[in-house]
UniProtKB/TrEMBL annotation:
Similarity comment: Belongs to the BI1 family.
Principal location: membrane
Membrane topology according to the record: Multi-pass membrane protein
Gene Ontology CC annotation, any one: plasma membrane
UniProt key word Nucleotide-binding: no
Pfam families: Bax1-I (PF01027)
Keyword match Membrane: yes
Domain of life of the organism encoding this protein: Bacteria
Transmembrane intervals: 28-47, 54-77, 89-107, 114-135, 141-163, 170-188, 208-228
Protein name: Inhibitor of apoptosis-promoting Bax1
PANTHER family referenced in this protein's UniProt entry, alphabetically: BAX INHIBITOR-RELATED (PTHR23291), PROTEIN LIFEGUARD 4 (PTHR23291:SF50)
InterPro entries noted in UniProt: Bax_inhibitor_1-related
Keyword annotations of the record: Membrane, Transmembrane, Transmembrane helix
Length: 235
């Protein structure tokens, strides 16, 4: 029996929004867990001096990069077919591998500078992710723009390997920061879109939660790295 239209509407909104925010909270919890694993891996390698031994072998950084790319490609291509446990395992493995590849940064930059810029990256990330969560705009049309920006950034990075110009490197950092600020908003909104696409499939929701966590994790890591590269104090 409907005696109060406003009260009934409030009840409906509460019950339809709660699962969405649980999904979003789970996604960000996985992202934070990935960041924690990456940080602990970096600290462990630095504290035990293994970071030096690991990178004496010239091919190891390249092998780690290939392994990381393979994990991302495999997760993206097989997301619908793999189990939830496999998706989680790939994400956690990727986080550890990223910690290994980033561990030399602890030898290159002062700890205080890195911690400060980590906080700045977290602030920027939080603002842009918040914007993505509250916006109701359809962001699917921005996918080609995001892809083009990322490809252009990769091309510029490759050019910088052969043309060593301080101004070019600075420009790349500013462009990289701008791109990943935008991509953060895009991926935060996509997290909501995935929920609405799979809200009736609990298993798929768990898997897209991991996939969204990976995307947001990569956004944060890249934002932090460009800030560190631009403003970090070297040892």
């Amino acid at each position: 029996m409907y005696t109060n239209g406003n009260a009934d509407m409030s009840y409906v909104e509460t019950n339809t929004k709660s699962p969405l925010y649980k999904h979003v909270a789970k996604t960000y919890a996985w992202m934070f867990l990935g960041l924690l694993l990456t940080f602990l891996t970096c600290v462990a390698l630095y504290a035990t001096k293994l970071v030096i031994a690991l990178f004496i072998t010239w091919w190891l950084p390249f092998a780690l990069l290939v392994a990381k790319l393979a994990l991302v490609v495999f997760l993206t291509a097989r997301l619908h077919k793999m189990s939830v446990g496999a998706a989680r395992g790939i994400f956690l493995g990727f986080s550890v591998l990223t910690g290994v590849t980033l561990s030399p940064l602890m030898l290159m930059y002062e700890a205080g500078s890195a911690i400060f810029l980590f906080g700045v990256a977290a602030l920027f990330f939080g603002v842009m992710a918040g914007a993505g969560l509250v916006t109701k705009r359809d962001v699917s049309g921005f996918a080609p723009i995001v892809l083009f920006g990322l490809i252009a950034l990769v091309v510029m990075e490759l050019v910088s390997l052969f043309i060593h110009m301080p101004m070019l490197d600075t420009a790349i950092c500013f462009i990289g920061i701008a791109i990943f600020l935008g991509v953060t908003t895009y991926d935060a909104k996509k997290c909501k879109d995935y929920y609405y696409a799979y809200e009736n499939d609990a298993q798929m929701l768990d898997k897209v939660s991991i996939f969204s966590a990976l995307n947001l994790y990569l956004d944060f890591i890249n934002l932090f790295l460009y800030l560190l590269r631009l403003l970090g104090k070297r040892r």
